Amino acid sequence: MNIHKIVLPTPFPVGDVNVFLVKGEALTLFDAGPKTTEAYETLKTGIRAAGYEMKDIDQVILTHQHPDHAGWIDAFPKANILAHEYVDHWLRQKPEFLEYRDQFYQYHMIRQAVPERYIEKMLQIRGELELLGTTPLTHFIQDGDEMPGHPGLKAHYTPGHAQSHLIFVDEKTNTAIGGDLLLETISSNPLIEPPIDLSMDRPKTLLQYHQSLTLLKDLNVSKLYTGHGNEIENVNELIDFRIKRDHKRAKQAYDILSEPKTVYEVTQKLYASLYKSELGLTLSKTIGELDYLEQEGLVKVELVGDVLIYSRT
Ligand SMILES: [Zn+2]
């Protein structure tokens, strides 16, 4: 793969994001950074440093819909924009979708026994969407598709961190563009998001995420270009490490369940120093661990009124 990495600043706690310019029969930008002035200038400079201009980009392909990756699709009005179909809901930001999204989060936070004042606050956080592009997709990518202009570069659907998440594997070199599926120094969070079919069913994101990591392991990728930080060469070793750490965290959640508890109560104990400032993130992580314990038959869940109560089996 003829690949050129460009590192863009983001205003998010995660820090910089990587985007990749790949020259094949087409000139393709993988991911596009957040829609900030700083990221735009850095992107333009980076594309020039690789010997091209913004207008030379034929297509932008997105790994997933998060705003640190999907902002500056708006900078390429003539390019094709390709991603998983789910991304389109977030780019179009139709009032019906935004309302559905709020209802989805509200419904689940009530079940998790999140105090009402926090639910209100969480629903008001719309800031993230402002840094997301609004150019609709021109093409939807499905699992197994070959990328136009890049023979042998195939998409693999890898949900968990995001419901739209794709990685792109070059079958000739066994290298891959991995988005946020696996990162060198930080763990990717299995964020709770509305499901692909836009029902109220909650995807079990940690279980999805581990399945996606297992798929990546089976692909035996020799070099992974990541969304944040350095490239990874010991891919399979790092996958084992990440899964083991999640299971350790699940054991802690199990210990906390010596008495039946709500998701919110488990989160308060499991992430005592973090849950107040990072409620969405820590709830997602807790739910992931509880889903895992439930799948293992160690924990059961029961609906009492509007609230889910988790207890040991
Ligand atoms: Zn990211």
From TrEMBL:
InterPro entries: Metallo-B-lactamas, RibonucZ/Hydroxyglut_hydro, Sec-metab_biosynth-thioest. It comes from the Bacteria. Coiled coil: none annotated. Pfam families: Lactamase_B (PF00753). Residues 16-228 form the Metallo-beta-lactamase domain. SMART domains: Lactamase_B. This is Beta-lactamase.
